[in-house]
Specification:
Elements lengths: L1 H15 L11 H13 L4 E5 L5 E7 L8 E7 L18 E2 L5 E2 L7 H16 L8 E6 L10 H4 L3 H5 L2 E5 L18 E10 L3 E2 L8 H25 L10 E9 L5 E2 L2 E10 L5 H15 L3 E8 L13 H12 L1
Parallel strand pairs: 3-6, 3-7
Antiparallel strand pairs: 1-2, 2-6, 4-5, 8-12, 8-13, 9-11, 10-12
C-alpha cells in the first residue's frame, strides 16, 4: 500500500506539472498523460475531439453487467490563470514540502480528484475486484470557461449517449477534518458584461452623462447586493457559500489615455445565484439597475444558466442509497 501511495503522489505531481492553463491552452500533454495512466491500469481509452484542440478523454472500466446504466466520474483538465509573483512556489512545479503539502495550480481544482479516481481503480483492480456497473472516468476541457466546447458539447453527441450514464460525480472540496460533504445541487452561474456608454471628452472637463458616472452606479448596486449576501453568511453559521448568491467584479474594460474621458466602460461580474432566488426577478432587478444608471447602459450575458433540479437524496435514487450505504459502513 505504501508503494501505491508513492505512485499516487508521483502521478498527481506529474499531472500538476502539465501547464494546462488558460488562456493559451494546449491539452496535448494531458491526453498523453491520461493515455499512459489508462495503459498502466490496462483500461481502454477514447479521445473525442469536439473541435481540433478540445479533446474529451474517456477511460473505461467495464463492469460485470455493462448493460446497466453506467457511472461517470468527471474531472476537468484545465486550470485558471496564475499570478506567479503572488506564489511562494512555482505554480507548475508541484513542489512538496517537509509536511507533505503539494503546491501547484490545480492541486484542488481539480486534478487531485481525477487522480483519486484513477488510483482508487488501481487499488480495486489490484484486489481483483470487478464492479457491477461500468465506470467511465472522463477528462474534459474548458470547464473553467464554462465548458461550451467541453462537457456541454459532449453531452449532445452520439458518443456520450452510448456511454449510458445513469449517475455522475464531479468536483467538490477537500475534507481536512475527515468530514465528507456531498454537493447535490448547484447555483446558477450568470456572467454579465454591463456596458456603460456616455459622453466622451477631455479629462479637464466636468461633463454630464459620462460612462464613469454610470459605471459607479452599477458598481454600487452590485456591491450592495454582495454585502447583503455576505452578511447572511456571516450571521448564520448554518449557511455555506452555496446557500447565498456570490457577486464578484472580475474585469473592467475601457479607456484609451489618462486625459481622455472614454465613451464606454464595461464591467464584468461573475454571479453564482442561490437556488432560492427567482431568476426572472433577478433579471428584472439587473435591468432596473441599468435604467437607474442612465441611458445607454445595457447587459450582455456571457453565461446565463437556469436552475438545475437538485439530485434526490431519498429512496427513489438508487445511486444515492448505494452511496450513503458505503459511507455508513465507513
Amino acid at each position: 500500500m505504501e508503494n501505491l501511495d508513492q505512485l499516487a503522489i508521483k502521478n498527481f505531481r506529474e499531472y500538476l506539472q502539465i501547464p494546462s492553463v488558460h488562456p493559451d491552452i494546449s491539452y496535448d500533454d494531458c491526453v498523453t498523460f491520461i493515455k499512459k495512466q489508462a495503459e498502466s491500469l490496462d483500461l481502454p481509452v477514447q479521445v473525442h475531439h469536439l473541435s481540433p484542440i478540445k479533446p474529451v478523454v474517456i477511460v473505461t472500466w467495464i463492469g460485470k453487467e455493462p448493460e446497466l446504466p453506467s457511472i461517470m466520474l468527471n474531472g476537468h483538465m484545465d486550470v485558471v490563470p496564475v499570478f506567479e509573483n503572488e506564489w511562494t512556489h512555482d505554480p507548475f512545479g508541484a513542489e512538496i514540502d517537509e509536511h507533505g503539502n503539494i503546491f501547484a495550480r490545480g492541486a484542488q481544482d481539480m486534478k487531485s480528484v481525477s487522480i483519486q479516481y484513477l488510483e482508487a481503480i488501481r487499488r480495486l483492480k489490484k484486489e481483483n475486484v470487478t464492479l457491477r456497473r461500468t465506470i467511465h472516468v472522463s477528462f474534459v476541457p474548458d470547464e473553467e470557461i464554462s465548458g461550451g466546447l467541453g462537457m456541454e458539447a459532449f453531452t449532445k453527441t452520439k458518443e456520450f449517449k452510448e456511454l449510458n450514464v445513469g449517475f455522475a460525480l464531479d468536483e467538490g472540496t477537500a475534507a481536512p477534518d475527515g468530514v465528507f460533504s456531498l454537493y447535490y445541487g448547484e447555483r446558477a452561474r450568470w456572467v454579465t458584461r454591463i456596458h456603460c456608454q456616455g459622453q466622451p471628452g477631455h479629462g479637464s472637463l466636468l461633463l454630464d452623462n459620462t460612462a464613469g458616472a454610470k459605471a459607479r452606479v452599477i458598481l454600487d448596486k452590485f456591491y450592495e447586493l454582495r454585502e447583503q449576501e455576505k452578511k447572511k453568511l456571516d450571521d448564520d453559521p448554518n449557511l455555506t457559500t452555496g446557500d447565498v448568491t456570490s457577486v464578484n467584479l472580475t474585469i473592467i474594460e475601457g479607456g484609451v489615455q489618462n486625459n481622455v474621458i472614454p465613451p464606454e466602460f464595461t464591467l464584468t461580474f461573475d454571479c453564482r445565484i442561490a437556488r432560492t432566488v427567482d431568476l426572472k426577478e433577478f433579471e428584472k432587478t439587473l435591468n432596473k439597475w441599468c435604467e437607474e444608471a442612465g441611458e445607454d447602459v445595457w447587459i450582455e450575458y456571457e453565461q446565463k444558466d437556469s436552475h438545475t433540479p437538485a439530485t434526490n437524496l431519498d429512496e427513489t435514487n438508487q445511486f444515492w442509497i448505494a452511496f450513503k450505504k458505503a459511507f455508513d459502513n465507513m
